[in-house]
Predict the 3D structure of the following.
Amino acid sequence: MGGTPVICALDETKTTGHISAMAKLNVREQLLSAGLEALHARGFNATSVQDITAAAGVPKGSFYNHFASKEDFGAAAIQRYAASAHARRRILGDAGLSPLTRLRRYFESLVALPRYPGAPGCMLGNFGAELSNQSPAIRACVGTAFAEWTAALAEVIGQAQRAGELPSGDPPEALAAFVIDAWEGAVLRAKVAQNRTPLDAFLTMVFSRILA
Amino acid sequence: MGGTPVICALDETKTTGHISAMAKLNVREQLLSAGLEALHARGFNATSVQDITAAAGVPKGSFYNHFASKEDFGAAAIQRYAASAHARRRILGDAGLSPLTRLRRYFESLVALPRYPGAPGCMLGNFGAELSNQSPAIRACVGTAFAEWTAALAEVIGQAQRAGELPSGDPPEALAAFVIDAWEGAVLRAKVAQNRTPLDAFLTMVFSRILA
């Protein structure tokens, strides 16, 4: 655990050949889509393979035609979650807005997403807390997602520094990592409080003290 | 869930009367001490009642003489964890140090605690992420612990503001809550990274941008 580097990777094209590739893709897609939601809502260890197949409306036995294990499924689910989080970052590249405005709009859009009570929080944070010492494969996927997110924010922070919108004292990567950590903590506290106060407080504090 | 206020409370004196109070206290103590460690290391849903009794070295059947359910046990465990976290805050009241120095020493002491790889992270964060939507009772205990922690930090931040060590623009409670959220996020990221870099970065950023 921790000693051996684990790569976040899955062979998305692997098939076993005994059912048609298209039907197989559909079942796999149903499993991932419904199962991701179940894992996000309840957590990994509280969700059984049967919960996942029931949520997807497919026979329990079909699960292992598509995934070698529940851990494999969890790794695929967190990669899919990271891909959707990546898609939500498009505004960071909007050339019609100044870099600092893009950063603010981005976090405003994140703050507007969750509905309390019951919002599941950030799946990266949930899996990171629950599984980092249980699954090296899932930990690697969470780490990769955090690294890509940090790099994406750092790029725009660097642009804001070069545009004179932010002072250039701190390295963009350090600012980005701190802001993401503060965001994860705020999402966690909002989940415990079951209200959005910590998210609004995050916006105020980050854009008056960190990205300011 | 979330609609009904849930109080974080357990009747610590409850006994069933059919075994001696002292023997019962010892078994309860063993269960809490070893079980807390197991829950902290593995998480709530990955730990069974049998794991807890095995860790404590007591018969499985004895568990329900002391706790009505695994959830009850989880609530007692997180309260005990919060009490030990409270004890680690003694330095915040050290009258021989300036308020800002106390704040810095306190967080330096927190940063020095975990050993990677394998450090379990903050149990408040772990349980908050895993259980807020699963157990109103445990969520209430985590919320109470966060609120007490925030109040304790806010008191010293207020002292630092009145002593002129910190500007008095932001309310101490808002600063304290943000710092704790940022801490939780840093601990989470350190757990994913399996190294202390995020914790050191937290110290640098907080004491140059937030408590500065």
In short: Residues 11-15 of chain B have pLDDT under 50 and may be disordered. Chain B touches chain A through 51 residues (CB under 8 Å). Residues 136-162 of chain B form the longest helix (27 residues). Residues 86 and 148 of chain B are 9 Å apart (CA to CA).
